[in-house]
Design goal:
It is globular, with a radius of gyration of 15 Å. About 20% of the residues lie in helices and about 35% in strands. By secondary structure, it is an alpha/beta fold. The chain has a single domain, classed as 2,3-Dihydroxybiphenyl 1,2-Dioxygenase, domain 1 (Roll), CATH 3.10.180.10. It starts with a strand and ends in a 9-residue tail after the last strand. Helix 1 packs antiparallel against helix 2.
């Protein structure tokens, strides 16, 4: 359905530090745009191959219009997590790197018996989440 989502930031360096840490537990790495022109001031995570012909990514940039980045009321991006531990690690890494909690990791039974999620705000105030589905109790190691 989506090829990419873009969020605004007022401090790309700070945002990169936050997202590198918060998305690592979810297995998401920074997109490689080396060798391509026009990517100054951008950073992305997810899949970006063949100059974007194969792309599912989250991108961050300073807004084109030169105005400060602002959050949208009701706007949120949720990332798939492979495990409850990854959701917990996402939340911890986000808080350790300038994020604010909007809901610690836990089951959200009002969304479903298997909806395990954590919610944070990035340093610019964007709301993001990590969600793991498919388990109704902590999987045994």
């Amino acid at each position: 359905m989506f090829t990419y989502i873009c969020l605004g930031t007022n401090d790309l360096e700070r945002a990169v530090q936050f997202y590198d840490a918060a998305l690592a537990p979810l297995g998401l790495a920074r997109c490689d745009t080396s060798g391509e022109a026009g990517w100054d001031g951008w950073a992305g995570w997810g899949t970006y191959r063949n100059r974007g012909a194969d792309e599912i990514a989250l991108w961050l940039c300073v807004p084109f219009d030169g105005q400060p980045a602002a959050v949208g009321n009701g706007t949120m991006v949720a990332f798939a997590a492979p495990s409850w531990a990854a959701v917990e690690d996402f939340h911890a890494a986000a808080l350790a790197n300038g994020g604010a909690s909007e809901g610690a990791a836990g089951l959200r039974l009002h969304y479903g018996a298997d909806f395990y999620a954590a919610y944070v705000r990035d340093p610019d105030g964007n709301k993001i989440a990590a969600v793991c589905r498919g388990f109704t109790e902590r999987p045994r190691s």
